[in-house]
Description:
The complex is a heterotrimer.
Chain A lengths: L3 E5 L3 H13 L3 E6 L2 H11 L3 E5 L7 H11 L5 E6 L3 H9 L4 E5 L3 H12 L7
Parallel strand pairs in A: 1-2, 1-3, 3-4, 4-5
Helix pairs in contact in A: 2-3
Chain B lengths: L3 H29 L4 H21 L2 H18 L8 H22 L7 H12 L12 H11 L10 H28 L2 H24 L1 E3 L1 H4 L2 H12 L3 E6 L4 E3 H22 L3 H6 L6 E10 L2 E8 L6 H10 L5 H6 L2 H6 L23 H10 L2 E7 L3 E9 L4 E9 L2 E6 L3 E7 L5 E3 L2 E6 L2 E7 H6 L21 E8 L2 E7 L1 E9 L13 E6 L5 E5 L1 H11 L2
Parallel strand pairs in B: 2-4, 9-18, 13-15
Antiparallel strand pairs in B: 1-3, 4-5, 5-7, 6-7, 8-9, 8-16, 10-14, 11-12, 12-13, 14-15, 17-18
Helix pairs in contact in B: 1-2, 1-4, 2-3, 3-4, 3-5, 7-8, 10-11, 11-16
Chain C lengths: L9 H4 L7 E9 L2 E6 L3 E6 L13 E7 L2 E7 H4 L14 E6 L4 E6 L4 E6 L3 E2 L15 E6 L6 E5 L1 H4 L2 H5 L26
Parallel strand pairs in C: 2-11, 5-7
Antiparallel strand pairs in C: 1-2, 1-8, 3-6, 4-5, 6-7, 9-10, 10-11
Amino acid sequence: MNKRILIVDDSFYMRTMLKNMLTDAGYDVVGEAANGQQALEMAVATTPDLITLDVILPDNTGLDVLKGIRQQQPDAKVVMCSAVGQETIVNEAIENGALAYIVKPFSEERVLEIVGGALQGDGPRA
Amino acid sequence: MKSRDQEYRELFMAEALEYYDAMSRHLSELERNPQDTEALNELFRLMHNLKANARAMGFVDMGEVAHKMETLFGQIRGQERTFTGSLVQLTFGAVDTLGNMIRAVGAGQESADAHVLLDNLDRLIRGEEPVQAAPEQTTEEADADAGRKLELSDLVYIPVKKLDNLLNLVGELVIDRDRILTLAAELGNAALQTTAQHLFRISDDLQYSVMDVRLVGAGVLLNKFPRVVRDVAAAENKQVELTLAGQDVQIDRNVLQLITDALLHIVRNGVSHGLEDAATRVAAGKPAVGQLRISALTERDDVLIQIQDDGRGIDTEAVRQKAIRKGVITAEAAALLDEEGVWMLLFEAGFSMAEKITDISGRGVGLDVVKLAIDSLGGQLRVSSELGKGTMFTLVLPTSIAVKGALLVELDARAYAVPLLHTDTVLALHADEIFAVGGLLMTRVQEENVPLVPLRQLLYVEGDEPLPRATRADLPADDTLHQVLVVSYNNRRLGLIVDRFLRQQNIVVKPLSKPLDTIDLFGGVTLLGSGQLCLVLDVPALTRLFLTKRP
Amino acid sequence: MADSSAAPGSRRAAPVAPEAVVQLIVFRLGDEDYGIRIEQVKEVTVTPEVVKMPKTPPFIKGIANLRGDIIAIVDLEERFQLRPAGRPVPDFSYTLAVEAADYTLGLMVREVPRPLTIPVSLIEPAPEFVQDSGQRDKYLEGIAKLPDSEGVIIVLDMAKLLTPSEIMRLPGRVEPPAAKADEAPNAPTPPEKP
């Protein structure tokens, strides 16, 4: 069975691009969330194998959402999506259980490498 | 299909224009009230998104401006500086520049050089004053600016999702309309009946208009095939001439999307199995180059897509024997099939005509995906073939379909679909978050008591008697989480206890045929990708059933 | 599928005499042979995966996907109370897709049905005293006595059986159990095709 991924990003463009990359690579994108509230609900509803989580979201920061998800599901695998210059947030995210982070703008190879690594249970990496 | 690049470009534009409007709005709010943290946070987030998206699209300058603006708003947010002085003017100017850049992308033009602005933004970030507080404009430029702001594009960018949502709403409207028509007829009130008739016509027009918006030319998909055919022909060492026809035939974008894989399979199959190699063709007295034709045409309300080759044709007896050998059908049943019935076996799961697995058509999936895709659309598949002369596959497709977003839930190892239109929220509740009042299980959702009922009880407990009075003692003693889907209808919320949540998915709802259409708990049925049947729950009817049966 | 495919060679078997013949699809229910006129049968197939449907009488086994048509699958043995006690529903069965005026229904049978051509004159109206098997007699066209003591075939009239209210009716009960029959004309129209 294909690995199931939930995408959390407030940009429709970004979600579509990520979704295309992941779907083309054989993953099932089981849901998309555009804000923190949706992300928390969808994480429960879809029990994905992995969540890609944008660090900046309209209603919560990505960090709050990460904490919320890890509280609901301590084993949830989360990969953060950030831009350059957000190393502080990213480091805090890793301390809070995120497995890895992808720096925007991202290349397809990079995304697949990091997502694949996180699903195989590698430790924190970028 | 549009190319990915084109799709990304359109999505980018649609969002960038939205961002630009929101930035302008929030900037004005921030100017009025520099303490408005909400506006500040939004500006920061919008700049962040625009930066990431622009960089992904390769718009370097736009990404740089947005990046520096994000940094500035970050500094304001971090209280390293305030939204005052030269900064105010420069940020307004920068947002205007971003707007120009976005419009230039839309018009396919180069945007003006931005280095002066970028340098000034850098100075501000370093805490210096910008060199030219406001880049001076000539009067003409200012006039041109003023004029430009009044021009609105004749085109709007609409994500397909919004259209789907619109069509879903129209679908719901049509259902209510039909109810009103029936009620009006029952009541026999002439004025009401006239109004209902009017409503009927308007909502009909509305439905057609919305569907019309989603129509695209079949060419967006067909035009992908020259490349596909070339690649497959090269890999299979065959000579193929492809002709396309009917690229202008109008069809729902979602229909095209759903049949993309199916068409790909048929075309690959046609090249690798239908057409012979040059030597075989010449030996059979045919031209060395094989002909493949893909055409779209309109037939009444349907669109036909035909894939025709002049290859070897289908060997009916070979297919019949192979199907029996592969266990697709019993020998008895196979003997009853006529020629066309045998050809349809090609599309059964487990049947794959190629004895050798090739790169092109031996990917573990066969022509059965074609049948699944067509079935899920409520379309038809026709085959005609003549041995030695060629084969033609015809996909009969609806011009338009309504795709509904739905949440799939599982109950007793069966999937049920609940339209997103009526889903409110999903909860995973511990037993201590559930309480019993008056024989009903309840939980708190956003300051409101919401009754909970096992979906199993609503679906399977027979008779019209009230449901048994529930107490907390009914809940399992262990600490398993109770999966609850909160649905809402008429502002009334109801929590359905299910076994688990599967996923969110777009579904095509097929109405139930007689005699089962009298069971109003189901809005229809849908075929999942696996070919599995899935009942679609009707939330209004479930809610009504709960109200009549509540203890 | 063409009718002729289900009865290969049956045209050749027609006698030269001007006597009218009827082609039947014959199948077993309980320990009796039943027949349906071939023009009422759309297709014979191995029963596809059947999905149980809540709020239906027990003889409706559920719904199945038959070449894109979603049809109800009916167990006539249960409907007519013909299944001998203790004999379970078979794991593997065949389905006859039969056509009513505006919909298709699947009849589940345990053995592979066979085509048979007989003179119309062999079919005799059902005797009045066959009143012991639920409401089966209401749907009979007649009973065909085969020559040479090859038994009898009970010929069903699908047109009578297949009205939606009849098919949903439980044996021995007059009211349809769904009790929603009056709502049928109001059934929501699908938004796809106005």
